[in-house]
Amino acid sequence: MSSPISKEDQFAAWYETMLEAGEVVDKRYPVKGMPVWRPYGWFLHSSIMELIEKQWTLQGIEKVQFPLCIPEFYLRQEESHIEGFKAECFWTTKGGDKDLDVPLALRPTSETAMYNMFSLWVRSFRDLPLKVHQTCSVYRHETKNTRPLIRVREIPWNEAHTCHATREDALENLRMAWVGYKRVIEETLGFTGLILTRPDWDRFGGGECSEVMDTIMPCGRVLQTVGAHYLGQKFAKACDIKYLDEKNEFQHVWMTCYGVSTRLLAATLAVHGDDTGFILPPAIARYQVVVVPIIMKKKDSEVVFARCEEIMKDLQEAGIRATLDRSDQKPGAKFFHWEMKG
Amino acid sequence: MSSPISKEDQFAAWYETMLEAGEVVDKRYPVKGMPVWRPYGWFLHSSIMELIEKQWTLQGIEKVQFPLCIPEFYLRQEESHIEGFKAECFWTTKGGDKDLDVPLALRPTSETAMYNMFSLWVRSFRDLPLKVHQTCSVYRHETKNTRPLIRVREIPWNEAHTCHATREDALENLRMAWVGYKRVIEETLGFTGLILTRPDWDRFGGGECSEVMDTIMPCGRVLQTVGAHYLGQKFAKACDIKYLDEKNEFQHVWMTCYGVSTRLLAATLAVHGDDTGFILPPAIARYQVVVVPIIMKKKDSEVVFARCEEIMKDLQEAGIRATLDRSDQKPGAKFFHWEMKG
Fold first, then answer.
1. CA distance A215 to A328
2. What is the largest CA-CA distance in chain B?
3. Which pLDDT tens digit goes with each residue over B250-269?
4. How far is A248 from chain B (nearest CA, A)?
């Protein structure tokens, strides 16, 4: 970045330039909406996902991994769900030279993949609540303009899905989901948003009620950073998830699901950054301290580097993510570089 | 498992039964070769991947994330590579109702996705070595019988890819890869195998030389548990990865790649298990201690549970993964269950 771009005046240009210059993603990969995550950017996103996962572990939500591919007949089980997603599914249709027996969707979200298995796993009230989450990517063939981390076709995210014996337990679980999200977003990432209930026409396909966090971006637009859905018994009926209650009668479960994606990183970068670059919350920063050697005379170089190495190692041993800039740039250029990267 | 199966006499049946009974995977998901990873199993696999990642971090190999989808023209760049993989690629051909402009392969391995980007990232000798790894899944439309963790169509794995200025640096890097793998496999997972060079007809498509670890399974068959490939300059030429050397002349880089998959978990479970169930290395065990309350008289139940809770918490605070079996099974059934799960 030879001439910094004003974040306030030209937010969109600032954002796109910074994601490339800050080595978050590389958009030159030739599949639209699927950028490459560079080490610096992947560390930031993974760190946010780990913070979310830690909240779910504390809440007894277990980590699973479901297949990427969802058979077409699963997606069609819940009518409003397939309506919501059919226009944006990627379909895998061939294995080698041959057509597959059944077209497989790349998961646009995992409800139908998971809930058919839940119907096998839930037998009695003793199996409830069933609470799982996974960190993976979902795939949506967006036709609008793509934008890194915000609107892409490959979306790294974390999704949680739960089954409960009663409506009240499900609603209480959603309340706890917001406690977890707010802890990470407000206390660690340092931004917030408005928690809103979406109108019926804009709610998640297959849900009863969608609550979202809308974060206001520097350009004045809102970005949906969290989606949390009360599913009632719609999917439980569509996928036949039933339990035997204490009176030995079958009941459908009550469900919730919620997820967050790379938009958490997008909002973190957008809200805190300034014209000189990113400003990262220390909890997710790739490097919390960068040691920049300042060589006044060439003959001192070895002494200065040795001392810098020591400082870096002391910091690392104290549990701080520290690095030493060994490149042969001048200190000014190094400061500029690390200012930009946050 | 009401009647235990003899591991020695009927290894295949023992293995398949144990993976389901031990809640590693659930094969009832209706896509062949793509089982669901249950929390217990996913913890084991993820723990092994974390051990591998830790080795790569120590060796300065950086973690990236490349897109799942590889355009057909990338895969075709290296002739022997596409020959090796074309029969087993899954192809995504549609987005919504429309045909995609270019068919996209679900990565069968990531060489061509990565190496075209490497050609943009490598400019001068200062950019070398370039060493990256990623943890993801690869997809292969196996036509043979599938078998969980060993031969599947969705393969969770870790792959590393490196570029070097000289042939010697590349070979030295491969030597270090084996140091890392052996540390995890021999010192932590507690098994080993024969390190063999594959004959030309069986070598990785696009490589110069393939070294593998073949682990002998209890049934006497061998399982390839590690693959490490010296790529020479074949891909560097196919994907045009060049650097300016210190004399300002362009040179192609020398490359290596290597990977391990869920087969490490398969071998761990197969080698150590016995007729009563899994025997897990403590480093990857989901629970290192299970507290089983023994209630002699019903009225003592509360006191015993309270004491068990205390013991569990003390262990957890000491950094041990401990759990308390709160189910209403009898102690004998609990012992049987946890014996089986390792």
1. 41
2. 85
3. 999 999 999 999 999 999 99
4. 17
State both tokens at A29. 């990969």
β-pair type (B154-164, A25-26): unpaired
Q: A41: helix, coil or strand?
A: helix
Residue that has been written with the tokens 């040795």 in this structure: A306
**Cβ–Cβ under 8 Å, residues B26 and B36:** yes
Q: Which of A141, A262, A303, A156 is nearest to B66 (CA)?
A: A156
Check residue A85 and give its pLDDT: 87
Q: What is the secondary structure of B92-153 as a DSSP string?
A: EEEETTEEEEEEEEE-SSSHHHHHHHHHHH--BGGG-SEEEEEEEEEE----S--BTTTB-S
Picking from A245, A293, A285, A248, the residue whose alpha carbon sits closest to that of residue A268 is A285
Euclidean distance between CA atoms A116 and A239, whole angstroms: 6
Report the distance separating Cα B235 and Cα B229, nearest Å: 12
Q: What would the pLDDT profile of A295-339 be if each residue is shown by its tens digit?
A: 888 888 889 999 999 999 999 999 999 999 998 889 999 999 999
B277: phi > 0 → left, psi -120 to 50 → alpha, else beta; which?
left
CB A127 within 8 A of CB A243: yes
**pTM score, whole prediction:** 0.96
> Which segments in chain B show pLDDT lower than 70?
1-3
- As given in the structure block, the two tokens for residue A124 are 């009695």
With an 8 Å Cβ cutoff, is B9 touching chain A?
A: no
Give yes or no for a contact between A123 and A86, defined as CB atoms under 8 angstroms apart: no
Which ipTM did the prediction report? 0.95
Calculate Rg over the CA atoms of chain A: 23
**Is pLDDT above 80 for A245?**
yes
**Cα separations (Å) of A138 from A40, B41, B129?**
22, 22, 33
How many CB pairs (< 8 A) connect A and B? 140
* Nearest-by-Cβ selection for B36 from A38, A39, A66: A66
- φ/ψ of residue B193, rounded to 5: -175, 180
Q: In b/e form, how buried is each residue of A213-227, taking b as 16+ CB within 10 angstroms?
A: bbbbbebeeebbbbb
Question: Which residue has tokens 């087969």?
Answer: B263
CA distance A107 to B184: 33
| Distance in angstroms (rounded) separating the CA atoms of residues B322 and B289 | 5
**Which residues in B lie closer than 8 A to residue A116 (C-beta atoms)?**
29-30
Contact status of A125 with chain B (Cβ, < 8 Å): no
- Closest residue on chain B to A141 (Cα): B95
Residue B242, token pair as written in the block: 């060049």
